[in-house]
Amino acid sequence: MTPNEDLTDELSALTSIYPPSTLPTTSSLPPPSILHQLLDGRYLLHLPSTPPLTLHLTIPPTYPTDPPIILDPPTTEALKTAHDVVKEVFTPGCVIFFDLIETLVERLRSSSTPASTSSAADSTVTTVSADEDLELEDKDTEGQDATDSPATPTATALLRSVDAPPWHISAPVIEKKSTFVGRCVQVATASEARNFLADIKADRRLAKATHNISAYRICVGRGEAMRVVQDCDDDGETAAGGRLGKMLELMGVAELRGTGVLVVVSRWYGGVKLGPARFGIINTVARECMLEAGLWDPEQGGKRKKKR
């Protein structure tokens, strides 16, 4: 894969993980994407942080062999941190932006919140067993279990699988012989989500999918008293569950409803590796499935809205 293809696939994955509606902004319109190119060839990176921070970058033609360059001088603590994080997370030959974004956002959050105090408006987040393997580096686990998977089932068979609970099931998406199907359902507790996942494993056709990537997010209570319970599972597709869970968080899934959503994306590997682009497909299938089911409203979901 050429460096340009690496960047194209990375941009696609980033846009799926961080939809424009989840990005904070100081203007009346959200940015077109988390990372987009200007007419003069520079790039703007809009960090999903509060307060909003935008970095001006150049990305050399040799990327990811060589790192992106931040054009903003380190005149503030936030910009100094950004320059430091690029040096820390960059590994020649590996794409960088997911690790850069997540590491920098966490550093900025830590520096803006003193350890001895916390805002009363902050929600308490409880992670049941969150997937911490969020590296964007492709560890070449794609299709690892493909030899154990049966031939891709027909669309009709896919839609008939797991009739209960009342899943909303997306139409199959086929990309280079791999088939992706999303399904989502409303849940009230972590135990209920785990029981529904057990139903997936009990279904012979779905159990034999190459991967069943899942994530759930449950909001108990509202406002300042809201508690969030969340978890995710790669099912062998390295880092896919973590990315899916991160997307649910950024979209603010279930926050307005005071309940929870479980989403599963099943993939039948077709023999052709998709590289980082597969993460974008997985998240897009999941997002569209929740939108079709009415379990997420892009006009209301997403907790990082512009502050007036």
From TrEMBL:
Residues 111-152 are annotated as: Disordered. Residues 176-289 form the Impact N-terminal domain. It is found in: Cytoplasm. The keyword Cytoplasm applies. One of its GO terms (biological process) is GCN2-mediated signaling. Residues 111-129 have a biased composition (Low complexity). Pfam families: Impact_N, RWD. Signal peptide: none annotated. Residues 130-145 have a biased composition (Acidic residues). Keywords: Cytoplasm, Repressor, Ribonucleoprotein, Ribosomal protein, Stress response, Translation regulation. It comes from the Eukaryota. InterPro entries: Impact, Impact_N, Impact_N_sf, Ribosomal_Su5_D2-typ_SF, RWD_dom, UBQ-conjugating_enzyme/RWD. Residues 5-107 form the RWD domain. One of its GO terms (cellular component) is ribosome. Coiled coil: none annotated. The keyword Glycoprotein does not apply. Belongs to the IMPACT family. This is Ribosomal protein S5 domain 2-like protein. It comes from Ascodesmis nigricans.
